[in-house]
Amino acid sequence: MPSIVIAAQSELVCTGLAEIIRHRPDWQLIRIVKDFTVLEEFLKAHRPDLLISEYLSGNCSMEIINGSRISAFVKNIMILSWKMNADCVQSIHDSKSITGFVLIAAGIDDLEQAIDNCINGRKYLCKKVLSVAAGDDPGNENLTAREIQVLTLVARGNSTKSIADMLSVSIHTVNSHRKNIIKKLHIASQVEFMHHALHRHLI
Q1: How far does the chain reach from its first CA to its final CA, in angstroms?
Q2: Is residue 168 part of a domain?
Q3: Is 129 buried (19+), middle (13-18) or exposed (0-12) by CB count in 10 A?
Q4: Are 30 and 21 in contact (CB under 8 A)?
Q5: 3-class DSSP state for residue 84?
Q6: Are residues 65 and 88 both part of a single domain?
């Protein structure tokens, strides 16, 4: 059974990934490592099939991308990031040590597909990362000011009725805004609303 280690400091990232992995009986999550200073030692001792690491400047995820010795203790590496630019995407694509790269704002299906590919040693860049590589900005989907408000309120866990009351509009209007957001951002679940709001620093 393929073994997986998550290295991340964000509680949202840890919880979301752990939930995805637990729904796959053919995958085994052996540890969530939040202290990056002990990651190398843990990988050396356990030699997992896949390391999923949050990309944070100043911690060892930068060393992974730059080809540190950490890659000698794990078969495949998948990087998760809140933001990315085209130059970094290209360097990751060309990296021998990194198997996959996914933006945290990607959908659950995209994350599961990425893990599946990376465990089996297949290169994987999520759709949103590919759009960055092509020169598109995944953070600029032309949301209106009102849609940004609704996105923020939904991500904070407010119901449609509560949002309608707060914005002094009808429930029908809020639902229309939600449909527009879903269409523009290609999202549906509450978790994905939260990912996009976090990606834009709205919450």
Answers
A1: 38
A2: yes
A3: buried
A4: no
A5: coil
A6: yes
Q: What is the CATH number of the domain that holds 83?
A: 3.40.50.2300
Which domain range does residue 127 map to?
3-133
Rounded to whole angstroms, the Cα distance separating 104 from 84 reads 10
Of 133, 155, 172, the last residue of a domain is 133
- Rounded mean pLDDT, 10-15: 86
pLDDT at 155 over 50: yes
List of residues 6+ apart from 180 with CB closer than 8 A: 144, 147
Instruction: Indicate if 11 and 76 belong to the same structural domain.
Output: yes
* Structure token pair of residue 202: 């709205």
Residues 180, 22: Cα–Cα separation, whole Å: 32
Per the structure, the count of domains in the chain is 2
Q: Strand pairing partners for 54?
A: 80
Asked whether the predicted pLDDT for residue 168 surpasses 80, the reply is yes
d(CA 61, CA 52): 10
Res. 26: pLDDT tops 90: yes
